[in-house]
Amino acid sequence: MSNRKPLVAILSGAGISTDSGIPDYRGPNGLWRRDPGAEKLVTYDTYMADPDVRRRAWLMRRDSETWHARPNAAHLAVAELERSGVPVRVITQNVDGLHQLAGLPARKVLELHGTARAVVCTKCHARSGMDTALERVAAGEEDPPCRVCGGILKSATVMFGQRLDPEVLAQAMGIAKACDVFFSVGTTLRVQPAASLAGIAAEHGARLVIVNAEPTPYDELAAEVVREPIGTALPALLSALASPGT
């Protein structure tokens, strides 16, 4: 018998971060429900074409709940599982960086939609910290240009109208095919291609566990569907994996 520990993949969506005070996008209290106009602030073509949209986008970034958010029990449980010696890979649809703040090594986190904690130039692709860009906004630059080439800066997130990074997506698909257990946590599994990862994992023999308040299109493929709150359900599920003899 092999003593190899199972490779655990965790696909995390907005629902894992709501306990940290970051609202989801499409839920009852989601960003798009509260401010329908916010969606165009993160639509690439609109952002690039309209300086007023960019100025409003910078104010939205400045006021984001992300900067005050701390990892919650679910993020901490994932990091604890990794520290216990179980091979863990996180594939996240979130841009908040809370998995890394919880202590999970950055190399074990694939950010499908990029990160809100950095900015990138749309012209020369230079990257820098979001904190520096927001300091410039606070100092009076309403739409700070790239300091390298003068190009338009945006957050290092995937906006509407942009493709996912094909290399990151390929790595995510590789993990989905190779893992032994695949947790889908806090995501509706309705946004492709991220949602397809759950199906790929199940097709390749992984045990699929879905932890989400609402039904998803992949529930029938799951070995287990959990509707309990993520902050209590996920730590319990992961603790069982880390225990000897499981």
Automatic annotation (TrEMBL):
Zn(2+) binds at C121, C124, C146, C149. Coiled coil: none annotated. Its EC number is 2.3.1.286. The keyword Ligase does not apply. It comes from the Bacteria. SUPFAM superfamilies: DHS-like NAD/FAD-binding domain. The active site is at H113. This is protein acetyllysine N-acetyltransferase. It comes from Streptomyces fildesensis.
